[in-house]
Amino acid sequence: MKKTLDGILVVEGKSDVSFLSNYIDTEFVTTNGSEISKDTIEYLKEASKTKKIYVLTDPDSPGKRIRDVLDAEIPNLKHCFISKENSIKHNKVGVAEGDINEILESLSFALTSKKEYQQNISMNDLVELGLCGGVNALENRELVSKKLHIGFCNSKTFLKRLNYLGINKEELKKLI
What is the mean pLDDT of residues 4-23? Predict the structure, then answer.
């Protein structure tokens, strides 16, 4: 049975739509890679007034660029992240190569991007908790990122995503 998603799911290309439409019932919008047209951005801006906009891009640098472009133009996007290690088939990285269970789970953990957020956690907190600058910081960050389905990222982006989620220091300690 297909999962119904209330909103629009933005993906990179036709192969993503072809794969995901077997499992998800929703409106799909493709960016056609990192060259997102002005028309697509304008459509999503207008649609965001009445619908939720979910963004599920490939776990690579072009996917991040697409997120950044959309984030700068469209308010309150819901970002869904999948891991790179579960999104590789035939030496290709992408959503269409991803594990469907992880993809469906990522839709439930969508991270809403807000232009303003309250900073509950600081970079000093990340250092103190071993999530930045330490010997095992990379591994610790990866572990927490997986638990929260926020995608693996550098310390600065990790901090930003934690604050978007409203995670406080005590909650973060429990996740480590």
Answer: 96
